[in-house]
Fold this sequence. Notes:
Layout: H1 10-64, H2 69-119, H3 124-170, H4 173-185
Helix pairs in contact: 1-2, 2-3, 3-4
Amino acid sequence: MPPPLTEPTPEQLSTALMIISAMITPAVLILGSSSLIAATSTRLGRILERTRKLAEQVEALLQRQSESEAVQDKLDLLLDQLTKTTRRARLLQRAMTSLYLALGAFVATSMALGIDAAIGAEHKAVLVTLVLLGASILFYASILLVAESRIALAAVDRELKFLGRLANLTGSSTSQSKVQEKLEVT
Length: 186
């Protein structure tokens, strides 16, 4: 028969609350990392789909074997876009790897806190190292995500310039003015 439960002392309560508080910080970081992983995974999926579509368009243009300036400009644009989407996919893949590593570091921190509490040991240096490692990797992943978004913006700018050039090549003053008007807004 188990011993009867006794009311915890204030010191025991304080210790328990400190352990719980310490374990909440990694949990918040785990949640944040998981959210970034989900968003980055979605972005990567979209980039891969965009890459496939661009490759199909390049293949179709190559089969036309046209020497017109508009077709050559379109081919140049598509090849540039294909290069950019490939770079973006590689950056997102590296960001995903970094986010998973950060997530692992934060989970390890949480586990180390629990183990420390269970065995009564204090390995503060290990805990701090794990948190700093996870935060550093998370910071690196955020730099990769910023770099990827800058490439995406450059790709959009390139497409807009192509549309302006295409409007000029077609010679239609109505289409030229509409495109120029839209380009000035951006």
